[in-house]
Amino acid sequence: MGCLRDVDRAAAAGEPTMEADFAPHLAIAEATNNPRFGDFLAMIGSNLIPRKALSDSSSEPAPKEYLDVIRGEHEVIVNALLDGDEEAARDAMRHHFKSSQARYRALLRAGKAERP
Predict the structure, then answer these.
(1) Which of 3, 51, 92, 110 could form a disulfide with 77 if both were Cys (CB 3.0 to 4.6 A apart)?
(2) In this predicted structure, what is the pLDDT of residue 52?
(3) Are 22 and 70 in contact (CB under 8 A)?
């Protein structure tokens, strides 16, 4: 998926990846064939990306270790979708959501994020 490569290119160049990372989320939402998912993501925008809590500035790149974890989770989701494996895609999404929630809670505990 080209949008994952865009995130990789930005990360490799030391550029912020938050905006580029939003594109795979939209593409995955479109792959569900449920227009409500895409509409919802478009409405909340990149605020969906908890990475905003890592920095006061969206112009700063996220830590490489963080990006590697996120990239791996996204890749599993995309591969399951490309394979047409609904169960694997559902499991990969569930894992990504739970992991994202755990990462965000850790940021809250560390005082690096604000509650919405």
Answers:
(1) 92
(2) 56
(3) no
What's residue 63's pLDDT? 77
How many Cα atoms within 13 Å fall on the side-chain side of residue 90? 3
CA dist 28 and 91 (Å) reads 14
d(C-alpha 7, C-alpha 103), whole Å? 19
* Residues 62, 66: Cα–Cα separation, whole Å: 7
116 vs 91: CA distance, rounded Å: 26
Amino acid at 41: L
SS3 annotation, 3-20 = HHHHHHHHHHCCCCCHHH
* 3-state helix/strand/coil string of 30-53: HHCCCHHHHHHHHHHHHHHCHHHH
pLDDT at 54: 55
pTM score, whole prediction: 0.76
pLDDT in tens, 31-89: 888 889 888 888 887 766 766 555 545 556 667 888 889 889 999 998 999 899 999 99
